[in-house]
Design goal:
9 helices, about 70% helix, globular, mainly alpha, about 190 residues
Length: about 190
Amino acid sequence: MRRRRLLAGLAGAVAIGIAAAVWLPQVDHVVRRIVLPLHHQDIIRQQARSKHLDPALIAAVIFAESKFVDQTSSAGATGLMQITPDTARFIARRSGATRFTTADLATPQVNISYGAYYLRYLLDRYNGNAVKALAAYNGGIGNVDRWIATAGAAGKSFTPDRIPFPETRAYVRKVLNARRDYRANYARELGL
């Protein structure tokens, strides 16, 4: 009797182990998609190629800006990459867009294209320095230029710790961490 209970318990444990081995990877995948979502990877890959950007960086900016939920902020920034109408008009003029309207920013293809264009512009402006480019994406070019000048006048380099706006400092760190996580978790999906 005792042996039968022991065997039944062992069989139950084996069944639970097998079920967990089959089920846990699926749960892990679902949890990862909730905690670190990724959508529109085809657009992200295409824009990364055409703008010579890291697709994980584009995904990380989208994550930090909107968590892949199309929305409009209180400041009027729109879409997945949270582009303001003024920035969108600047991008449209620079990129030669002829039929742009701000309503187009609600379209993932347009929004990611414009956001990637702006990221490329900022990276070029700051000689490939992602910290400066991301700080400008969030805090504005004028502010970043002042912060760089202030750091330079003090004989110091510009680092995330020297960003005086707490929101922008946190934003830069969030994007850099998310870029690392997207590279680690979505290399295949992002074409890395």
